Each structure stands twice: as C-alpha cells, then as structure tokens.
Amino acid sequence: MSTEVPIIAAVCAALMLPLITLWRQLNASRQLNERLRLLFQFGSDTAFVVRAESAGHFVVTQLNAAASGLLPEIHAGRALSSQHANLLFASSDFMLALQTHLQQTVREAASAEYETTVPGENRAMTCKVRLHPVIESGKVGHVLCLVLNIAPRHQPEQAKSGRWHEFRTLVEQSPDTIARYDRLCHRVYANPAFRRLTGAAAPSITVNEYCGESYRMRLREVLESGVEDAFESSWLSGERKVTSHIRLVPEVDASGTVTGVLSIGRDITALKATEHNLRESKNLLRELNTRREAELRQARKEMAREMHEDYGQRLSMLRMKLAMLNMTFGKPHPELGERIDETMHLLDETIVHMREIVSVIHPSVLNMNVADAIEWLANETLTITGIDFDVRIEEGLATFGEATTSLVYRLVQSALSNVVRHAQASKVSIILSRHGNGCRLEVSDNGRGFDLDRAKKDSMGMVAMEELANMLQGEIVFLSAVGKGTVIEVCFPVWQSAAPPERFLV
Q1: How far apart, in Å, are the Cα atoms of 464 and each of 159, 285, 406, 411, 440?
Q2: Cα Dmax for the chain
Q3: Total-model pTM
Q4: 3-state secondary structure labels for all residues of 442-469
Q5: 317-337 pLDDT, tens per residue?
Q6: 387-403 pLDDT tens trace
Q7: CATH architecture of residue range(s) 174-267
C-alpha cells in the first residue's frame, strides 16, 4: 500500500488519467487494478457502481467514500429501489431521475449526462450526474455513476456564519438598544448600547434591572399573543432619568411558535426633555396671554366705567344747562335759541357715540351672564345684516365666571365678524352645550365656505380665535369647504364654567 500512494498522488496531480478514462479502460480489462481501485475509493467526486438486472432493477455493487458520505444508506448488494424510502433524497426527484436515466443508459448502451438537485441540510444543491455503461457480453452489465459539482456541505454554514457575523457587527454598532429574551423572560443577549443605557453588565439576567415588573408583563403578553408591542418607558439609570421608546417583536420558529422576544429601544430622553421645555414654554405663554387679557379686560372695564360715570355725567350736565339756557334766553332771542338747539343736537349725538364706544370697550351685558351676552351680541351684529340666527344655550351653562364669559363672548364676536365680512351666509347657528366633562361652543353658517389650507396661512382672525381658545385651555377646530359653509367648534374644560385658576387672574 505504501508504494501505491505516491503513484496515486502523482496521477491525481498531473491529471493524466481522469476517472472517466480509467473507467473506460475497465471495459476492456473488466478488472480494477490497485491504482484504479484507490482512485475510485478515495477520489473527491461521488462515484458508485450499479449492476443492471432484468426488469429494470439496479443493485449497488460498489461506492466510494464520497458516495457513502452523500448516500449513507446505499451499500453493496442493495437495490436502489429498496433504499428509496431511506435515502437523504427521499423528498426530492434525485432517485426518480437516476433510475430513469439508468434505464435509458442500459437501453441505448450510451453514456448520459443530466443536471439535478440534491437537498442539503440548509439548501438545495445543483449537481451534474454522468452515467457510463460497461459493456459485458454484448450488453450493459454495469453502470458507473458520477455525481459532480456538488457544493461542499460546509459552505452554507460558512455563508450563514458570515451573514450572522455581518448582522452582529451592525447590531453591536447600533445606537439603538437591542436585546433578546427567551421564553422565561431571561435576557440572552444585549448589545453595547443596551448595556450603556441600562447600566446592565451581565449578559444574561432577568429584566428586573430594566423597566421593572411592567416591562416583564409586556414581554409575557408578547410571548403569549405573538403580537408586536410598542410603548414608552422611563426609569432611573444611576442618577439620571432615562426614557426610551421600546418595540417588542416576537421571534417565531418555522412552525410559527413564539420562541422569544426581540426588544428594540431608542433613547428619547433628550426629545422628552425638549417636549417638556416646549410644553412649559407654551403653558407660560398661555399664562402670560391670559394675564395680559385679564389686565386689558380690567383696563377696558375701568375705562368704560370712567367714561360712563364721569364723562357721561359731565355731558348730561352740559345738556341740562343748555336746555335751561334755551328756556331762559331762547324765546326772547330766537336766533340764540336756534343755535342752542343745534348745540344740544350735536351733544346728543356725542352722548350716543360715547355709549357705543363704552359698549365696544366693555359691554354692560357681560356683567349679566353668557347666555344674555351671546344673544345680545348676535342680535346687535346680525339683525342689521338680515341674516337669520339661532342661539341655543344649554340650561345651567349661563353662570360662567367673568373671565370665561369674556373669552367666550370674544370668540363668538370674532366668529360672527368673519360671517358678516366673508361668509355671504343667510343663516347662523350658535350652540353652547355640555360636552363630556367640559363645554362645547359651536358657531356654524351656511355660507360659501373657504379653503382651510390656504386660509390658515394668512387669516389673522383664525389665529386670534385659536389664541382665545388656548386661553380657555381648550381646543378649537375649523371645518369648512368651498361652497359648504363653515363650522367653528371649541371644547374647553369644565372648570372654566366657574372661573379660571387664580393664577390667571389679576
């Protein structure tokens, strides 16, 4: 044996005699010499020999090491058909194609070559099969079967390992936290971002160190339901409060069974801090606007009171003196009486205009209740235009505080002003009602409507109404379309039905 191995190596290295050529020599000699036997036995190509029997049966007489690794159930003396149920290829067409081409080779006494697939452990492999007949006594007695170009079995595993390495590299470098949990809610993997954010050093511990029992409960729900979950969670990492947006994605096997959970989290601590600062700034701005509105309301109220009580009384006294002057000197001096009458008429117009100014600055109806204020406003604004209107105030909502009544009044006033100037409507409806735990104000018309997207860019009236709704701590919605009228809806908290918080008042 020791003297034959160098010969075999030299033959293989020089590629002087391919296996097919050597096998064709077998047709003449009908016996394998020692070198050919070693080539057949230890060659890298899969090779086996079958004996052709009657009725299309084929019995395996020899197979080399490569064939025994690929077809472990085939051995000498066993028929291919008897091995079919036990072969690695039982679920493929390999054996059917092999038997079909073996019968063709025996029938035609000619070599055959075809391609087929061989199912591997991880994926199907494409291979070539060559069949070479051995003529014995004028007929085919044996057939040499060669299976070529089969990818080595370890290549899919290598490819899989390479892909996993690339994937793991991406995960390890990801700024998002990534962790995996098994069926027992044990963390079996955590990337560096997860460990940095949570302060978890151990790679496999329970989730108590992360977001507490609520996080564990969500993990269990995903494991049981197989439905993805997403939520925000905050916890203390050292002395720092951390907030993450977390997605829990179920991992399933080929049968659809949930085998674990993949947790993907993004640190939104900075974003939440920005949102908090923005919310605080918005609240501060609302308080400043509300305080400014309260101060302006108080100033208007004082101005209206002063104009009504001081200037109004002065003008009334002036009129009385003119009347007495006319009575004393008007009759003896007709020309003087006419001049006094003209002055009194001008004075009366001045008093009327002053009262209108007082009403605009601070309507006296605001000292009553919101229902009377809205009805008076609608009557004063719409009656002269010929627009029909309907005011409906739910019972029990007429006792708003002064601040709330003023803001609701100004909202309605702004809405009706837009109706008169732009809507070309014939009917307006004003409704104030309860809405859940709060109140709902609706002003609607059947006018020509407008394009909301275009109007929001340059409508100061809409901006003013939004600011008034914001001071009520409410939300305003505009509904409109060209040719379909307009609806303005404001919902505000129920505490506004009494009075705003003290910090909003002067």
Answers
A1: 65, 15, 14, 9, 18
A2: 167
A3: 0.48
A4: EEEECCCCCCHHHHHHHCHHHHHHHHHH
A5: 888 988 888 888 877 888 888
A6: 999 999 888 776 777 78
A7: 2-Layer Sandwich (3.30)
